[in-house]
Write a structure and sequence with these properties.
The complex is a heterodimer of chains A (about 300) and B (about 350).
Chain A: H1 2-6, H2 30-59, H3 79-84, H4 91-122, H5 128-140, H6 147-154, H7 171-195, H8 198-206, H9 211-222, H10 224-240, H11 243-248, H12 257-262, H13 274-294, H14 296-303
Chain B: H1 2-20, H2 29-58, E1 61-63, E2 78-80, H3 84-91, E3 95-98, E4 101-104, H4 105-137, H5 142-154, H6 157-167, H7 173-178, H8 189-215, H9 220-228, H10 233-261, H11 265-270, H12 281-290, H13 294-318, H14 332-348
Antiparallel strand pairs in B: 1-2, 3-4
The chains are: A mainly alpha (about 300), B mainly alpha (about 350).
């Protein structure tokens, strides 16, 4: 890959786009440069896709061939997918749990985040820098620090006997989930609101809207793509969350999909049921991948918003 | 239930906003702003602030064990033990044999965490920048590559841990391709390598994506001028590309560093809990907490927290990482670039602890 980076390329070929690596040498090497860049991109794609391909392939084998190293399964079998939903795994239930947990986290995060982001993007006030630091710091601290006190509290051990027993409840996962979802949402949405010209609201207010109405009727509809992107990103984060769910959801009927997958056991007890695990992994990942691929442009724009104009 | 209580404060806040403020965009914005921010700040205090304080309190206590001499029952409750949970780290008899010889389990986890962070972040940065340079050079098919790059990002970390577990199985495809018979998952030096490979796979493309955004803000004139002056490609890279992409890159690296310091899912899912060659501080603290040793667990989590704070401080002070981006309007160029990186990096914190 490094060789591809340093390979000379013709500067006249692609104008500004390749300028950063442009080399003073002329057309003789131009073709080589193009080829090198395609080879480089091919390598990147293979690097990113190959392990995922292995997961898909492994899920399509016969359950008895879990560790086979054939690059193409023969025969192709969907038995693992049937196995995922077999009785003891409770996987269908865990998918529902994941949707509930991730969905609620996303909605709550957006409700709070939109309001806060609007203030941060539009209003001037003392202490704004401090608020930004608090929100940023909130996304930085290790999640593990929440685990000991919350585990103690949610399981109503002394001295928290007054606290309701929250182990195996959704709120035990949703509430800590807000601590990483909210900073992210506020941050993303602030960037989106900032991109919208303030003249829009001013025009609306000249026409007699209050700031609140101007926000609801003018800004919010225009920011809808940003809100949507933020929702996807927060949802993916909450859907993929593992540590908190692993700690607080111990009952198989309440586990989220990520926890359920990590606890799959084989029928014999010793043999890891790789086929089933891979099938479950594909099931959990594919909806995210479809969303990511459809909204690829938007997500990348959301993730890097403000930088490329 | 959570939905109801959570939405309640949000609505009045917005309502008050336009009831009290007729011209919020001109003056007196402070009050409106704080009303709009109140619900978010309240949530942050409740879900993050209070638990952190509780954790600090917890680290000074120890659960009672044994039999209560007065009642004859198994002892319950907890006792204030001062700094004992912290000093026990140094006097601990609980020594384990990891990659660094015999030492306390805490120090073993500490060094694992540190080396994971240094090695993973270095590799991810080099690979990510290389990817960004390739993508920046391309003028066709970039969308295709971007789609590919989002694949590792979208796969849940625990799923990718299990995926790599299969790949690194003793009878797995990694050994087949390498022509070796290494026991990657058997808690040895190779396990560490396997976890590094999996982590780099998942996050290097993302650093690439962020760096690409930074690269695209560099004006083409810089390179044209350099070319006129006869600079080589390497000189251009070192003198133009790196300095100009630095603000983006430093913030991206900062967030990746903080993310790797709290690594949990990958070693836990691939190698398992209680495996000393790959046990990180997060895994150690988790193990202690789930065995009802809340005091030590909180102490370890707090040390990790301080470690993270120190690293963040060093990045901000020494490398000038402009994480807020917004608070420094004087350096508008830098601020904007930093903001670019900060947001995606934030995003990454979601699934990859």
């Amino acid at each position: 890959m490094t060789t591809a980076v340093q390979a000379p390329s013709g500067s006249h070929l692609s104008a500004a786009e390749v300028a950063q690596l442009a080399h003073p040498k002329q057309s003789g090497k131009a073709r080589a440069g193009v080829v090198a860049s395609y080879v480089g991109m091919g390598l990147i794609v293979i690097y990113c896709i190959a392990p995922f391909y292995w997961m898909v392939v492994s899920s399509l084998r016969l359950p008895t061939e879990g560790r086979s190293t054939e690059f193409i399964p023969s025969p192709v079998s969907f038995a693992n997918y049937a196995g995922v939903f077999a009785g003891q795994n409770n996987f269908g239930r865990s998918l529902v749990n994941s949707v509930i947990v991730a969905g609620t986290t996303t909605i709550l995060t957006l409700v709070f985040g939109i309001v806060a982001a609007y203030a941060l993007a539009r209003l001037q006030f003392k202490g704004k820098g401090m608020v930004l630091w608090v929100i940023m710091a909130c996304s930085m601290f290790p999640l593990i620090i929440l685990i000991p006190p919350l585990l103690k509290m949610f399981s109503s051990t002394e001295p928290f006997t007054w606290f309701p027993y929250w182990i195996n409840t959704y709120q035990a996962v949703i509430i800590p989930g807000l601590s990483f979802g909210l900073p992210l949402a506020v941050w993303n949405l602030t960037a989106f609101f900032k991109q919208l010209p303030v003249e829009l609201e001013q025009a609306a207010m000249v026409d007699g809207c209050t700031p609140g109405v101007a926000f609801r009727k003018v800004i919010l509809p225009l920011a809808a793509p940003g809100v949507f992107t933020t929702a996807i990103i927060v949802f993916i984060g909450a859907w993929n969350e593992f540590l908190v769910a692993l700690t607080f959801l111990q009952d198989p009927s309440r586990q989220t999909a990520t926890v359920a997958i990590s606890k799959f056991t084989g029928t014999t007890g010793f043999d890891t049921p790789y086929g089933t695990i891979m099938a479950a992994g594909v099931i959990v990942t594919v909806p995210l991948l479809i969303a990511v691929l459809i909204f690829q442009r938007r997500i990348v724009a959301g993730l890097t918003a403000g930088g490329v104009k | 239930m959570a939905t109801a209580t959570a939405e309640a404060p949000a609505r009045p806040a917005r309502g008050d906003g336009h009831k009290h403020k007729k011209n919020a965009l001109s003056d007196g914005q402070g009050r409106l702003a704080w009303m709009l921010l109140a619900p978010t700040l309240l949530v942050i205090v409740v879900v993050a602030g209070i638990p952190v304080l509780m954790s600090i309190r917890e680290s000074f206590y120890s659960a009672n064990t044994g039999v209560d001499p007065n009642t004859g029952l198994v002892a319950s409750g907890e006792t204030f033990v001062g700094l004992q949970n912290f000093t026990a780290i140094f006097t601990n008899q609980d020594t384990v044999t990891g990659s660094y010889g015999q030492m306390g389990r805490f120090f073993n986890a500490f060094w694992n965490t540190t080396f994971f962070t240094i090695i993973c972040v270095t590799l991810e940065t080099i690979l990510g920048v290389a990817m960004a340079l390739i993508m920046a050079k391309a003028f066709k098919g970039r969308g295709f590559v971007r789609a590919g790059i989002l694949v590792p990002w979208a796969i849940p970390t625990i799923v990718s841990a299990l995926m790599w577990k299969l790949i690194f199985d003793e009878a797995g495809v990694a050994n087949r391709i390498l022509g070796t018979q290494i026991l990657w998952l058997a808690d040895n030096g190779f396990s560490f390598v396997a976890v590094v490979v999996a982590d780099v796979w998942k996050t290097a493309p993302f650093i690439g994506l962020l760096t690409l955004a930074g690269l695209q803000t560099i004006p083409a004139e810089c390179y044209e001028a350099a070319k006129v002056d006869g600079a080589t490609a390497w000189q251009q890279f070192v003198r133009i590309t790196l300095p100009m992409v630095k603000p983006t890159l430093v913030v991206a690296v900062l967030f990746r560093t903080l993310d790797t310091l709290r690594m949990f899912d990958l070693p836990y899912g691939m190698i398992g809990p209680g495996k000393y060659r790959v046990e990180t501080l997060s895994i150690f603290a988790y193990t202690e907490a789930t065995q009802n040793r809340y005091g030590p667990a909180a102490a370890y989590a707090i040390i990790l927290f301080i470690y993270v704070l120190l690293v963040a401080f060093v990045f901000v002070k020494l490398l000038g990482a402009d994480v807020i981006g917004d608070s420094a309007p004087k350096k508008s160029k830098k601020g904007r670039a930093a903001k670019t990186a900060a947001m995606p990096a934030l995003e990454m914190t979601g699934g990859n602890h």
